[in-house]
Amino acid sequence: MLIIGPVLVPFMLFKGLSYSQIMLLQSISAVSVIVFEVPTGAIADKFSRRISLFLSGWFCASGLILYIAFESFYLFAVAEILFGLGLTLMSGADSAIIYETLVKQGRKKDYQRIEGRAQFYIFLGQAFGSVISGFLYKYNPFLPFWISVVNIMVATFLALGFIEVTRERSEHHYWKHIFLSFGVAVKTPRILWAVCCAALMGFVIRVGYWLYQPYFAAVDLDVAWYGVIFFGFNIVAAFSSHTLVARFSNTRPRKILLTLGMLMSMSFLLPILFMAKWAIALIALQQIVRGLYRPVMRFYVNHQVQDSHRATVISTVSLVANLSFAILSPFVGMLLDLQGTTVSYTFVGLVATIGTLLLYLLRKRQKLVAEQV
């Protein structure tokens, strides 16, 4: 569990980075995820999901240590690449283990609920970690980062204890397996819609985190209170993943995902109308999305593909999300440096609004085509 969320942007500013440099680093991280995402998903499919998770922890911890030890933009870029590699080794493998175990037990319908419960405990842990993070940072900026490194390593060794069920494995060679999985994503209309949705949500959800601190600074919120705000954010996300996932488990996933797109739009456009400390509560709408998006999207994708391609297709969806973030995030960083918080929030809010409308129209078109077949 990482507790650096509330103080990561202040820490990077403390290290001498501008907003443009911060977002460029995040773009580098996203590009590294794009490069590694599908190959590491294929490793999980063809070899071992457990080993994939174990290696993930080592790379993530190494990236954090580079941030702690150095003050060079170029070394920070290396850290982001390592962190990106670690995230890709985890992506797809974790949800694939859960889903396949439930299928073997005849409990496939429980996937959303169990994934949501796992998210609930993660958010709850992050909530309590966030409370102390801001105060630890004010005492010593490096403390939250060292604690996070220790937490990662503990989780890394716990991953070795996971048990993988016997499953169908791809009989194709590595690269052929990857291309076949891409074919599944492109030729399956529902997966193609999920890919387009991931392109939108991957950008707006991820960039939302990097826009918290500029808004906090704009309304003159002291850094010590960032952790308290993040506590509230994580409690909302925990409620969303625990209660709302169960509440809407019988609702069509695409309908839920479209609603989440509109919530993201509101979370950017409404706060800039007021620019006040209390309006931070409106940004908390993003936490509802944060809690619901992963279990709903993962269930939606898992339900469409076979075991042999599952982790790779999930990774493909994640790849597209990172591609959109890699392309647009440097532009948001420049907007922050040149135009400020209000313009940046307006831009992201409009992207969320227009993107959600286009997803709705694509959904309608796919339904019409399906009815004509």
Gyration radius over CA = 20 Å
Q: Which structural class do the helices and strands define?
A: mainly alpha
Low-confidence stretches: none
CATH architectural group: Up-down Bundle
What proportion of the residues is helical, as a percent range?
over 70%
Share in β-strands: under 5%
CATH superfamily: MFS general substrate transporter like domains
Number of strands: 0
Helices, by number, come to 17
Largest sheet: none
Domain unit count: 1
Mean pLDDT: 88
State the oligomer: single chain
- Head-to-tail CA distance between termini: 48 Å
Broad shape: globular
Question: What labels describe this entry?
Answer:
single chain, 373 residues, mainly alpha, Growth Hormone, Chain: A, 17 helices, 81% helix
Please characterize this protein's 3D structure.
The chain has 17 helices and no strands. The chain is an all-alpha fold and about 375 residues long. It has a single domain (about 5-160, about 175-370), classed as MFS general substrate transporter like domains (Growth Hormone, Chain: A, Up-down Bundle). The longest helix is centred in the last third of the chain and has 32 residues, at about 340-370. The radius of gyration is 20 Å and the shape is globular.
Describe how the helices and strands are arranged:
Layout (H helix, E strand, L loop, with lengths): L7 H7 L4 H28 L2 H21 L3 H18 L2 H12 L6 H29 L3 H17 L14 H14 L1 H22 L1 H7 L7 H22 L5 H17 L1 H4 L5 H4 L1 H18 L7 H29 L2 H32 L1
Helix pairs in contact: 2-3, 2-4, 2-8, 2-16, 3-4, 3-5, 3-7, 6-11, 6-15, 8-9, 8-16, 9-12, 9-15, 9-16, 9-17, 11-15, 12-15, 12-17, 16-17
